[in-house]
Specification:
InterPro entries: AB_hydrolase_1 (IPR000073), AB_hydrolase_fold (IPR029058). By secondary structure, the protein is α/β, with parallel strands linked by helices. The protein contains 11 helices and 8 strands.
């Protein structure tokens, strides 16, 4: 599926979000909500493989070019409200898909309004990465974006120093990671600021949670996934073989194929 349009939507408070639309803009579709260290462009290869819905709308959440600023009042509820604006614009949406922090946003959005289907890949919830907040705050205050990328990979995701050096060796890729780390401290702070409701996705007709095989039962993503699962009473659980948290980068076709298979009939 090819991208057909990009649209800018005002979300109030002097900010806005852009969305990339693939397929038929006015047809029922899937809305994709990326997580931290990610943007709409990062999800283009996954969106391009999806054909179970006539359209795919990928949200470029605030804090990323070419969307607007987080603003001083930013919170997790801000993200849910922004997604509500997108859903009002694309009112024939049939399903939501969120990755990581985006997965939490979609599950919470389905408490506020009826959604036929919610799919979430390794959604995270508090406490997640809370221990890294002081170091991220210092890095943000000094605009040390290299340090931010190191913190998210080493202290939060648990990758090795060698992995970080491999990332750094790709100058273009590292520059993208530095840019995407700008809103990281605020986003992680928002994730940890408010306790989640006892039940999530209350108004979703169908909920499907996906975990990468490599993260089953392991911290931080597998354990946070298990925590989320306790708050979603009616979810089906699915596993993506051979993958971890970054399936949209490392196996976009496989992830897209799984999403096609999960499309509600």
């Amino acid at each position: 599926m090819e991208r057909t349009i990009q649209k800018r939507l005002s979300v109030g408070g002097d900010s806005w979000v852009t969305v990339d639309v693939y397929g038929e803009p006015d047809a029922p579709g899937l809305v994709v909500v990326p997580g931290v260290m990610s943007d709409a462009h990062t999800w283009r290869r996954v969106a391009g493989t999806i054909d179970a819905w006539p359209s795919v709308v990928v949200v470029n959440r605030r804090g990323r070019a070419s969307s607007g600023p987080l603003t001083n009042s930013y919170s997790l509820q801000t993200e849910v409200d922004d997604l509500g604006v997108v859903l009002d614009e694309f009112d024939s949406t049939r399903a939501l898909f969120g990755w990581s922090y985006g997965g939490l946003i979609t599950l919470l959005a389905a408490n506020d309004r009826p959604i036929p289907q919610v799919i979430a890949y390794e959604p995270v919830m508090q406490p997640f990465g809370r221990h890294a907040l002081p170091d991220l705050k210092t890095a943000e205050e000094t605009a040390d974006w290299d340090r931010c990328v190191e913190i998210v990979n080493r202290q939060i995701s648990g990758f090795s120093a060698a992995h970080v050096e491999d990332l750094r060796a790709d100058q273009h890729g590292w520059a993208i990671l530095r840019r995407l780390s700008g809103p990281l401290y605020a986003e992680l702070g928002a994730l940890n600021a408010a306790p989640p409701p006892d039940v999530m996705a209350r108004q979703a007709d169908q909920v499907d949670l996906i975990i990468g095989q490599c993260n089953r039962g392991t911290a931080p993503y597998g354990t946070s996934f298990d925590h989320v699962r306790q708050h979603v009473a009616h979810a089906g659980v699915h596993e993506l073989p051979g993958q971890g948290h970054l399936a949209h980068i490392q196996a976009p076709a496989e992830l897209g194929h799984l999403l096609n298979n999960l499309a509600a009939i």
